[in-house]
């Protein structure tokens, strides 16, 4: 049964005050991620916005063990930590959580992550997807949406984003999920479920970024929900190959309600300013096709 917002635990492992931007979606979601693991965890984090949020030793805004690692090595470090816990007989005491951005996951870190998935290493990997290299000045990543302007796609990115959850699902790992920082109970439930499963568990979390996307920080949650309502972000999970929509996406699929037009979402952010109507139409066609595929899979259809 899905957790209700008032049933989320009061305990918080994210302390008051950090160096993240106003309205950053990472801090919102990190509270639920750490709460779902009850603080019994060790994190490995590469150079990223999350490093800025957490701070550097001996000052930290997160009250859990935290290891900063090199940009491409998040999954490799998590594999080593998990092996060390097994070797010392402490594997049952805490969960290993690897948490990195879209650049550190889908581009720079994909080699180590794919290797860990092939070996089915025992840790949770969570990609917080703010859709560009935000910590280094908003360069495009493989997960930047089509049409978005970044410092390296000044005329708008030409390609649709990689479907990284599908790439991870193709590895045959036991658990894959897609969620959004704008839906805290969905984040909480998926991390809590992943905690009970052995092997490599992959969670992909859309994380709105006011400074990189170009919107008012007060609208972080509104924009995250709008991304789901227009189908650019879909909430789902795959357990041992069985696919199901969850939360808001489940409701939209079950009732057959029309998705919000992608143009409504694009109009809320300065990164899409000047996007040609035909480019918007192309994204809408891509979203519609993908949504129909997801709705068709809901209830168990396998990817392969």
Can you describe what's shown?
The protein has 304 residues and is α/β, with parallel strands linked by helices. It has one domain: Rossmann fold, CATH 3.40.50. 38% of the residues lie in helices and 14% in strands. It is built from twelve helices and eight strands. The chain has an eight-stranded mixed β-sheet with strand order 2-1-3-4-6-5-7-8, with helices on both faces. Strand 5, helix 7 and strand 6 form a beta-alpha-beta unit. Helix 1 packs parallel to helix 7 and helix 3 packs parallel to helix 5. It is globular and about 60 Å long. The two termini are 28 Å apart.
What are the salient characteristics of this protein?
304 residues, alpha/beta, 38% helix, Rossmann fold
CATH topology-level fold name: Rossmann fold
Class derived from helix and strand content: alpha/beta
List the strand order in the largest sheet: 2-1-3-4-6-5-7-8
Secondary structure: number of strands: 8
Task: Please state the average pLDDT score.
Answer: 95
What is the overall shape?
A: globular
Q: How many structural domains in the coordinates?
A: 1
Distance between the termini: 28 Å
Percent of residues in beta strands? 5-15%
Low-pLDDT parts are none
Largest sheet: 8 strands, mixed
**Name of the level-1 CATH class:** Alpha Beta
Individual helix count: 12
